[in-house]
Predict the structure.
Amino acid sequence: MCENTYDMTYSDLNPRFLFSCIQTRKEPTTEHSHDFVELVVILKGCGDFMIEDKVYQVGEGDLILLNPGTSHHSLRSTQEAEYQTECYIGFTDVEIRGCRKGELPLFKDCQRIVRMPEALKKEIFALCREMERESSHCEIGRYFMLKSCLIRMICLIARFQKQEYEQEEKKRYAAQYEFKSINKQYIVKKITEYMEEHYREKISLDQIAANMYLSSYYISKLFKSETGDTPINYLISLRMEKAKELLDTVPDCTIQNVAAAVGYEDAYHFSKLFKKYYGISPLYYKARIPVQE
């Protein structure tokens, strides 16, 4: 799975919309592949779908993700009385960070097909029908309306993938790590020691977790259960204390230098945090302390 811990930006996600269509499948299609991404949404009915020589049973609410070069084709519906209705969306020029150019991340465990939960299914179905309406009318801005629907669909899928990944992480680490209280205290101690040593540097929860060979979700939950606070809030508090000490001992130090000394490149952001903690900006705090002759 590609990285899913960042927010998408314009450079990550600016697809070129190619087509969308809704059709009722009465006959199987021939095996083929594309040089673009294709999403297939099963709107009604059930049947079989072959991907890379493997047959999958699909039904209403299933979402199929086909990256470029993926061999696939629809088979005959398994219920002759209820033909399968499918929505096809084709697009290209996606550049999701951590993924191969022109591809979307596959679902959990590299699955190409997923059964959408009811909430996601409702939103995706609505977007499919909105795209069908736009495609059938030559209104001004039709392409951009279709592209906006596509972007919303990709973002919804990305959010779903992130939720699935986080839930899997929770289950995996909940089962893997069952520490006694003394071991939990040891982990919290190691986290605080790491922060004491590295507070001058850029520190993220992922870095701390990687350093301890644990998941960021697990250490965040453990740290809060043992201390009542999150690791990031603890780090900010530590940095503010160190900044106050520096202003006390070296009052002629510039605010920019104080910020840099406690791990902040942006002096304005540092000043806002300092005022939040002490009720006074570092500049005013500094002015209260007489410079040593």
In short: The first helix runs from residue 118 to 135. DSSP finds nine helices and eight strands in the chain. Strands lie at 13-25, 37-44, 46-51, 54-59, 62-66, 72-77, 84-94, 113-115.
